[in-house]
Every structure is written in structure tokens, then in C-alpha cells.
Amino acid sequence: MTPQEEELLKALQVYSKSELTYVPQPRTFEEEKAREKTFREKLTDLINCESRENDSDTPDFILANYLADCLRAYDRALQAREQFYGRPILSCSSYKKK
Fold it and tell me: Which of 71, 78, 82, 83 could cysteine-pair with 87, CB 3.0–4.6 Å?
């Protein structure tokens, strides 16, 4: 067994022992776009409800877009890291608690 195969086996064992279950959630481009829009709208509402835009005098939708973009950039960084180490690239949205 190669070192990469051993690491993959270890990773799979960790995932199988966790409290998470893999649930494939294939989405079309339109579904993903709608999901992203809904998330940004909810984030905008949250920022507004908490008046968090007041400190920076920045409109709530600009802050929501910035934070959503940060999450997407972080996700891309994690995917690049896993690809670099030859580990499976798994999306957190593909898991749900048992």
C-alpha cells in the first residue's frame, strides 16, 4: 500500500468514526446560485438586525458580500490544501449530523 493510500484510508476511518454522515447533495448551477443569494440575503439581514454596519459606516449588503466572499476563498484554500496532500476533497455541505 502506498503512503497516499494509507493516508486516504486513515482519513476515511476518521470520517467513518465521526458523528457525520456523507449525504451527496448534487446541485445544479441554478440551485447553487439561488442558495448563495439566499445566504447573502440572510447574512445581510443578520448584520442589519445586529446593527453591525454602524461601526464601519458600511452598508450591510457590502459587509455581507465581503464575508460571503471570505468563506468562499477559505473553502478554495482548503480544497487546494487537500489536493496538495493528495487527500479527498470533501465539502462540508456534503455532511450532516447523524
Answer: 82
Model confidence at 57: pLDDT above 60: yes
Task: Report in angstroms the alpha-carbon separations of 44 from 40, 69, 71.
Answer: 6, 13, 15
Are 1 and 75 in contact by the 8 Å Cβ rule? The answer is no
Domain boundaries, the chain: 3-97
Orientation of helix 60-85 relative to helix 29-49, angle to 10°? 130
Band of pLDDT at residue 97, cut at 50, 70 and 90:
very low
Would you give the DSSP letter of residue 92? G
Nearest to 15 by CA among 85, 70, 89, 78: 89
Quick one: 87 exposed, middle or buried, by C-beta within 10 A (0-12, 13-18, 19+)?
Answer: middle
- Residues contacting residue 94 through CB under 8 Å, at least 6 positions apart: 22, 23, 24, 25
Residues sharing a CB contact under 8 Å with residue 82, sequence separation 6 or more, in sequence order: 88, 89, 90
